[in-house]
Design goal:
about 525 residues; mainly alpha; Neurolysin, domain 3; two-stranded antiparallel ribbon; two-stranded antiparallel sheet; globular
């Protein structure tokens, strides 16, 4: 390695490391407290990190070294490219950095502290979801659903301004808009992605319509109304991201009252993977002012890995905890001998694939018997229903992702357009839901990701595709996941340890000896 290259890489790591640590610490404090002071600290730390990567000279140097082929080996070549991509993604002037971080702080504060108002009562997200999932009163679920959208009106104007600001930064670099820039600098080809999603649309349309007809009848029966009278609030979820309860098998009752922590420990102990250290550092239960979502955060790439959850003793939160711990274990077992900047998964979609696979264990027959301790005969019945629900979940979620990706692409093409109508056009087209008569509201802005995790949802769907391919190999090579330490070793050695030493596409090939192949996923839902 040339002295210039070695010096450049060492300087980048030395300078960015404390900025990253300050940002993740501030992010954690803001998410766990929701306080004005913590939110301000996160904004400042985010801006400092952005300023570092935004340095045009650093970006130009990284690009020149990356394109010159100076790196002496593939690992250093990958490290150089990661530095270049990080710098390229942050290219914007000081005024833009200040504006972006200020706008994001404004909407983050609203989302973190929002509690829907229904009849004078403040409802947490957990309470909203419980009512939508269990109530059989059309008037009640409509009020709750409409209340859940109140946050959209509070942030919509700011989200539009965020889109304009992100677009201006992208266009200054020669990109069409932020959508194109975000995909390109995250190593996803826009044309290939759109072609893939067009294929998924075609492959899932008929199976989804048959499933939707079954769901519609079940929901109409549940509410005692005609199918023609069904509206979005009747589907048990604020955005119809997942299927509502339907079918004759009660999948929920076996989970009620079960401690998610105990089930998670039993699950990961069976794989020979230790999560107690992660749980001890995590923030697990709901309270006022705390972020109501769930996420995993690697604070230092040295082992300080935490999850944020809002646990309740039910199926949804048990699945969520398994999911977030899947993310955490990926971070935990990345080879610490790798350069610090490569101690991450190859891509967000790579870690999503593992998290989705682990969360999906709640529908696995072996997991139901060994971990949830359901009797064998009952487990067979639950697993069969679980497989049907898993298939339904993948279909419903795929159609929801088609809404999100198409909406965000249109949003960044023209932030000034009628987004309220566009949102419902896409919901009707891909999800088959009837828009509420006469409704004019920025319901799209009620979705947290549109504002604060932009151009992200395709990673979930790509994660599902990778999950299906990984599951095929795990089944073939070690016989499954549950209670198999050899499966844990397979994950550590084949999937986790390489970190970001490969790009995501090459990583899929390295793990499965095959490029990403959507056929595994399509077969699972067709």
């Amino acid at each position: 390695m040339s002295r210039d290259l070695e010096t450049f890489i060492r300087e980048v790591e030395t300078q960015v490391r404390p900025l990253y640590l300050a940002y993740t610490q501030a992010m954690w404090e803001a998410a766990t407290t929701g306080s004005e002071e913590a939110n301000r600290k996160e904004q400042e730390a985010q801006a400092a990190l952005m300023r570092f990567w935004a340095d045009p000279e650093r970006c130009a140097t990284a690009r020149r070294m990356h394109e010159s082929g100076q790196a002496p080996d593939p690992l250093m070549a990958r490290l150089l490219k990661r530095i270049y991509l990080s710098a390229a993604e942050a290219q914007q002037d000081e005024a833009t950095i200040e504006k972006l971080t200020r706008l994001e702080a404004e909407v983050r504060k609203v989302y973190y502290n929002f509690r829907a108002q229904v009849g004078g009562e403040r409802l947490s997200d957990n309470r909203l979801d419980e009512i939508l999932r269990t109530s059989a009163d059309s008037d009640v679920v409509r009020q709750v659903w409409e209340a859940s959208k109140q946050v959209g009106a509070q942030v919509a104007d700011t989200v539009r301004e965020l889109a304009r600001t992100r677009n201006a930064a992208a266009q200054a670099q020669g990109f069409r808009d932020h959508f194109q820039r975000s995909l390109t600098l995250n190593e996803i080809d826009e044309d290939e992605l759109l072609a893939l999603f067009k294929r998924l649309d075609a492959a899932t349309r008929e199976p989804f319509l048959r499933l939707k007809a079954e769901i519609d009848q079940a929901r109409a029966d549940h509410f005692g109304i005609d199918r023609e009278d069904l509206r979005p609030w009747h589907y048990g979820d604020r955005f119809f991201q997942q299927p509502p309860p339907f079918g004759k098998v009660d999948l929920e009752s076996h989970f009620l009252g079960k401690d998610p922590i105990e089930l998670a420990l039993a699950t990961y102990d069976g794989l020979g993977l230790e999560v107690r250290d992660i749980l001890e550092r995590s923030d697990l239960y709901p309270r006022e002012g705390k972020n109501q979502h769930a996420f995993c955060l690697d604070l230092d790439h040295e082992g300080d890995i935490r999850t944020l959850n809002n646990l309740e003793p039910n199926r949804r939160w048990i699945e969520t905890l398994l999911h977030e711990l899947g993310h955490a274990l990926y971070d935990k077992f990345i080879d610490r001998e790798l350069p610090w900047l490569l101690r991450t998964p190859p891509h967000t979609l790579s870690t999503e694939a593992i998290a989705l696979m682990m969360g999906g264990l709640v529908d696995d027959r072996e997991w139901l018997v060994q971990v949830l301790e359901v009797p064998q005969e009952e487990a067979e019945r639950l697993a069969e229903a679980g497989r049907a629900l898993l298939r339904a979940g993948r279909l419903v979620f795929t159609r929801w992702v088609l809404v999100m990706v198409n909406f965000e692409r249109a949003l960044y093409r023209d932030p000034e357009r009628d987004l309220d109508s566009l949102w419902w056009d896409l919901v009707e087209r891909f999800q088959g839901l009837k828009r509420p008569e006469g409704r004019r509201a920025p319901d799209w802005a009620a979705k947290y990701h549109v504002a604060l995790a932009p151009v992200y949802y395709q990673n979930y769907e790509l994660g599902y595709l990778v999950t299906a391919q990984f599951q095929d190999r795990v089944q073939r090579e070690v016989g499954g996941l549950v209670g198999r330490p050899q499966a844990g070793r397979w994950l550590v050695e084949r999937v986790f340890r390489p970190g970001a030493s490969l790009d995501w596409a090459a990583h899929v090939v390295a793990v499965t000896d095959e490029a990403l192949n959507p056929d595994y996923f399509v077969r699972s839902v067709a």
